[in-house]
Amino acid sequence: MADTQARRWGHYPMSGLAGKTLLVIGLGSIGTEVARLGQAFGMHVSGVNRTGRGTGPGVETIRPPRFLGDLLPTGHAVVLTLPLVEQTVGMIGAGQISRMRADAVLVNGGGGGVVDEQALIRGLEQGQPAAAVLDVFATEPLAPESPLWRRPNVLISSHTAALSQHENERIVSLFIGNLRRYLGGDELLGRFAQPRICVGPSPN
Predict the structure, then answer these.
(1) How is 114-179 classified by DSSP, letter by letter?
(2) Distance from C-alpha of 28 to C-alpha of 61, rounded to nearest angstrom
(3) Which sign does the torsion angle of CA 41, 57, 32, 165 carry?
(4) Domain for residue 26, yes or no?
(5) What is the CATH number of the domain that holds 148?
(6) For the whole model, what pTM was predicted?
(7) Domain membership flag for residue 197
(8) Domain residues for 136?
(9) Is 8 part of any domain?
(10) How far, in whole angstroms, is CA 24 from its chain's centroid?
């Protein structure tokens, strides 16, 4: 962004994804797809879900939430795809952020309140993690005075990561398909009985 505003033409070698470690917290349908794509880029993929059991394409290791503190230091990219429920509010706080790698990127595409934003701001100011990609926030829209707007190491997508020109078409198609399933007594698609990960906030 700074180069764009200054009309500066620079060249920056990228480190690449192959051989890096991706930590996916929340292995529902979105998290599983993130893990699959990470593996396709040659990443080592670890995951956290509610039970620590199960399998997923590309996920080498699955652990329950109590191992989160051990896994955070390994993640070059930490992707949150879990829902915001009472038990996940503030799950990523100062204590968890302090355990992340200094070169890590935190991505939140799940529930905004899962991350303690003040703790994240302090971490970003101190260089740990290196950057954050945020699609969701505790309060939306994000307040104009939030320091996150001004951080050069933060990318904000304003809760639009799931939007598509075909969104309404897909919603209608899913609804019609599920209506047929319901009338036929079949299992509905996209229905979750409970969150895939459910933990309380850890002490900061």
Answers:
(1) GB-HHHHHHHHHTTSSSEEEES--SSSSPPTT-GGGG-TTEEE-TT-TT--TTHHHHHHHHHHHHH
(2) 15
(3) positive
(4) yes
(5) 3.40.50.720
(6) 0.85
(7) no
(8) 20-183
(9) no
(10) 7
Question: What is residue 4's predicted lDDT score, i.e. its pLDDT?
Answer: 85
Backbone Cα Rg of the chain: 18
**Burial of 95 per CB tally in 10 Å (0-12, 13-18, 19+):** middle
Give me 108's structure tokens.
Answer: 């939140």
Q: Encode the chain (204 residues) as per-residue pLDDT tens digits.
A: 778 889 999 888 888 999 999 999 999 989 999 999 999 999 999 999 999 988 778 899 999 999 999 999 999 999 999 999 888 899 999 999 999 999 999 999 999 999 999 999 999 999 999 999 999 999 999 999 999 999 999 999 999 988 889 989 999 999 999 999 999 999 999 875 444 443 434 433
* Cβ atoms of residues 123 and 99 within 8 Å: no
Amino acid at 78: V
**Paired tokens of 204:** 């900061």
Are the CB atoms for 79 and 30 separated by under 8 Å?
A: no
The structure tokens 């470690």 sit at 21
Give the three-class secondary structure for 65.
helix
Domains: count for the chain: 1
Q: Which amino acid is at 133?
A: V
Q: In sequence order, what are the residues at sequence separation of 6 or more whose Cβ sits closer than 8 angstroms to the Cβ of residue 143?
A: none
Which residue type is seen at 170? R
Q: Which of 132, 163, 161, 162 is nearest to 149 (CA)?
A: 132
